[in-house]
Every structure is written in C-alpha cells, then in structure tokens.
Amino acid sequence: MIESPVNAIDLAERFENALHNTARCWRHAMDRRLQYLGIGLAGWMTIATASQVRSPLSQSELADMISVSSASMVHMIDRLVKAGLVIREPSISDRRVNRIVITDAGQRLYTELKEEAAAVRQQLVASIELEKLAHVTELLEQLQCIFQS
C-alpha cells in the first residue's frame, strides 16, 4: 500500500523505468530471435503493418503507424525493396505518393515472423499467472487509452 506522496512518486518512477526497460528488452529479444532471418524489429514491424492493412499505405503513413521518422522509413523501405519483400507502387490519386505493397516473398517472411514472435511471446509469459497477465494487460490498455485521448 502506498503510504505517502514520496512513495507514490517513487512507485511512479519505478513503473516508468520498468515499462521502458521491458519494452527495450522485448525489442532486443525480438532482434536476437529474428537475426537468422536477416531482419530486425523495425523491418518486422514495417512488414507486419504493410501485411495487415486493407489497402497499401504510403511511406509516411507507415512511418506514422510504427512511430519512426519519414527518413528512417525511406531507408527501411529501400532495404525491403532491395530484399524483394515489398514494392513501391505509384498512387493512382497522387503521383507524388508511393504506396508500399508487400510481395509474396514478404508475405511468406511475415508468416515466419509471426511464428517467431509467438515463440518469444510464449517464452515471456510462460511463467506468469494468467490472472496477473490479464491485470497487467488491462492496465497497459488503459494507459494506451489515456495517451490516445
């Protein structure tokens, strides 16, 4: 139980550090797991996002969705194009815009990536009680709502 404002501040700082460090550890675990596929978490997130949308997104829309700069996204797309995982298609409505379309090879890689992510996720939560996992998940979803409002 929190007994004083000082303890509340200390707890809030601990929470912030734990959240940040957990996200960092997740990224490192995914990068290590995906290394043999020749792709890191940023590439995985780009391919995943491009695979999950109904219609192709522009480079800037992709950058916004995965919270990276437009310049970083251009370099990521360049690498993915070179690897044959995505293609740039000119937009029908705006010639200045390229839409990013995942290729068959990119879709096959995405299937592998999902399996690898599931394995890391399973390893992560295997020792956590289901009730605790549900509680933490609800808390994180609540925080997302607060940030998005």
Give the SSE layout:
Blueprint: H1 5-34, H2 41-52, E1 57-58, H3 59-66, H4 70-82, E2 86-90, E3 98-102, H5 104-125, H6 130-148
Antiparallel strand pairs: 1-3, 2-3
Helix pairs in contact: 1-5, 2-3, 2-5, 3-4
Mean pLDDT across all amino acids: 90
Q: Tell me how many strands there are.
A: 3
* Rg computed from alpha carbons, rounded to a whole number of angstroms: 19 Å
**CATH fold-level assignment:** Arc Repressor Mutant, subunit A
Distance between the termini: 29 Å
Query: What characteristic shape results from the CA principal axes?
Result: globular
What is the helical fraction, as a range of percent?
Answer: 55-70%
Q: Count the DSSP helices.
A: 6
Query: What top-tier CATH class fits best?
Result: Mainly Alpha
Q: How many domain regions?
A: 1
Largest sheet: 3 strands, antiparallel
| Fraction of residues in β-strands | 5-15%
User: What's the CATH architecture name?
Assistant: Orthogonal Bundle
Describe the structure.
The protein is mainly alpha-helical and 149 residues long. The protein has one domain (5-148): Winged helix-like DNA-binding domain superfamily/Winged helix DNA-binding domain (Arc Repressor Mutant, subunit A). The chain is 70% helix and 8% strand. The protein contains 6 helices and 3 strands; from the N terminus they run H-H-E-H-H-E-E-H-H. The chain has a 3-stranded antiparallel beta sheet. A hairpin with a 7-residue loop joins strand 2 (86-90) and strand 3. Helix 2 crosses helix 3 (59-66) and helix 3 packs across helix 4 (70-82). The longest helix is centred in the first third of the chain and has 30 residues, at 5-34. The chain is globular, with a radius of gyration of 19 Å. 15% of the residues are buried. The model has no long low-confidence stretch (mean pLDDT 90).
